[in-house]
């Protein structure tokens, strides 16, 4: 089977991003976004998805983290779309509930080619370290739109903002891992339409 990998470089007036992504990895990650908590989240995403992910971003974090986090979502989405290829033989759908102490996160997704995001994160503290919690939705939207996936994310309950965001990224890794898994019984594209 061919390796499902991608390398993306994205440069704007606000950010410069270089990344490589192997969908069939072992969970090794080297992340340098300039935002410590976000690095931690992307490391968890890769570890729980069993993705090999190397990412470096130089952004205008002296302004705030918005441009870096959103542009990383865009670059990851572009890389995913390239790595997944023609989508032949994949499971396509992935759903995962992730308990993170008192918080429960839910992620369900479809590698459909029809990008959409439904996000219900609930109330959170404005900041976790140097990370603006509003950027979780911005990241997920950018990723879903550029990856071409339908993505539903919800925090069912919880009180600790760190746990809520961590639950989301871990659940996203697991759900995506399920969806990209190859199934030998699926010989073509997993759609009755014949195309995704």
From TrEMBL:
Pathway linked to the protein: Amino-acid biosynthesis; L-histidine biosynthesis; L-histidine from 5-phospho-alpha-D-ribose 1-diphosphate: step 6/9
A family per Pfam: IGPD
Alphabetized GO MF terms: imidazoleglycerol-phosphate dehydratase activity
Principal localisation: cytoplasm
Cell compartments where the protein resides: Cytoplasm
Keywords per UniProt: Amino-acid biosynthesis, Cytoplasm, Histidine biosynthesis, Lyase
GO BP term (any one): L-histidine biosynthetic process
UniProt KW Amino-acid biosynthesis keyword: yes
Gene3D superfamilies: Imidazole glycerol phosphate dehydratase, domain 1 (3.30.230.40)
Cellular component annotations (GO), alphabetically ordered: cytoplasm
Cross-referenced PANTHER family: IMIDAZOLEGLYCEROL-PHOSPHATE DEHYDRATASE, IMIDAZOLEGLYCEROL-PHOSPHATE DEHYDRATASE HIS7
InterPro entries: IGPD_sf, ImidazoleglycerolP_deHydtase, ImidazoleglycerP_deHydtase_CS, Ribosomal_Su5_D2-typ_SF
Catalytic activity as recorded in UniProt: D-erythro-1-(imidazol-4-yl)glycerol 3-phosphate = 3-(imidazol-4-yl)-2-oxopropyl phosphate + H2O
Superkingdom: Bacteria
Protein name: Imidazoleglycerol-phosphate dehydratase
EC number: 4.2.1.19
Family, per entry: Belongs to the imidazoleglycerol-phosphate dehydratase family.
PROSITE patterns for the chain: IGP_DEHYDRATASE_1 (PS00954), IGP_DEHYDRATASE_2 (PS00955)
Organism: Selenomonas bovis
């Amino acid at each position: 089977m061919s390796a499902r990998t991608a390398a993306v470089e994205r440069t704007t007036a606000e950010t410069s991003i270089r990344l490589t992504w192997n969908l069939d990895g072992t969970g090794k990650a080297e992340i340098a976004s300039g935002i410590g908590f976000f690095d931690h989240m992307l490391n968890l995403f890769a570890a729980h998805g069993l993705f090999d992910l190397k990412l470096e971003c130089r952004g205008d974090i002296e302004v705030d983290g918005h441009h870096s986090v959103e542009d990383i979502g865009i670059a990851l989405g572009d890389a995913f779309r390239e790595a997944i290829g023609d989508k032949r033989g994949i499971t396509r759908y992935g759903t995962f509930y992730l308990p993170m102490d008192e918080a429960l996160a839910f992620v369900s997704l479809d590698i459909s080619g029809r990008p959409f995001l439904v996000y219900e994160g609930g109330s959170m503290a404005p900041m976790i370290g140097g990370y603006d919690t509003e950027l979780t939705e911005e990241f997920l939207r950018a990723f879903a739109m550029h990856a071409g996936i339908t993505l539903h994310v919800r925090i069912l309950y919880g009180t600790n903002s760190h746990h809520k965001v961590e639950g989301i990224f871990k659940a996203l890794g697991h759900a995506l891992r399920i969806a990209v898994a190859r199934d030998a019984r699926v010989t073509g594209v997993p759609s009755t339409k014949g195309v995704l």
